[in-house]
């Protein structure tokens, strides 16, 4: 099995948009901070506060409008995938990085040279049940999914089309 560092390196080159232009992603969120229900209550929401360079690079360089997203609730029981969303904007600078009163302020970021980016995300559906991480780790077809790897902490993760299809089956959508 590949170590997480190797997976991250491989992800940067193997999780690009397919011939149809579609890519799939997983976004982690803490539901006490911002949940799938919170996303459902608004038309769209900037996915802000990402402060990891690999996650930022995925958002800035790879995400496109129309890409499909799995929403994963962390730091809650049960942890797992709770539903879907869609990317509905091109990447743009995260406005929170420029405001000293914001939690995600970055003194090194400048409007003329932003360090952090967001995309707007729109709610699509809530699954009937949480697809729990423990079960996902045992599911055939998800053995190499970034989420199921030991040490996988990235808040923005690419998902292969084949993995998306397995998740759709588990959610009763395929």
UniProtKB/TrEMBL annotation:
The protein's name: EVE domain-containing protein
Top-level taxon: Bacteria
Pfam families, per the entry: EVE
InterPro entries: 5hmC_binding, EVE_domain, PUA-like_sf, THYN1-like_EVE
Species assigned in the record: Acanthopleuribacter pedis
All residue ranges annotated as the EVE domain in the record: 23-169
Lineage: Bacteria, Pseudomonadati, Acidobacteriota, Holophagae, Acanthopleuribacterales
């Amino acid at each position: 099995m590949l170590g997480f560092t190797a997976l991250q390196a491989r992800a940067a080159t193997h999780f690009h948009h397919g011939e149809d232009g579609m890519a799939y992603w997983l976004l982690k969120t803490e539901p006490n901070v911002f949940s799938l229900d919170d996303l459902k209550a608004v038309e769209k929401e900037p996915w802000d506060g990402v402060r990891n360079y690999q996650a930022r690079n995925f958002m800035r360089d790879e995400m496109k409008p129309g890409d499909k997203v799995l929403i994963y609730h962390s730091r809650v029981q049960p942890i797992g995938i709770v539903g879907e969303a869609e990317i509905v904007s091109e990447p743009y600078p995260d406005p929170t990085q420029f405001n000293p009163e914001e939690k995600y302020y970055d003194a090194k970021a400048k409007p003329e040279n932003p360090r952090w980016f967001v995309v707007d995300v729109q709610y699509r559906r809530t699954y009937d049940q949480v697809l729990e991480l423990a079960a996902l780790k045992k599911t055939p077809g998800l053995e190499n999914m970034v989420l199921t790897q030991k040490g996988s902490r990235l808040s923005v993760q690419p998902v292969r089309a084949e993995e998306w299809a397995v998740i759709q089956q588990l959610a009763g959508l395929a």
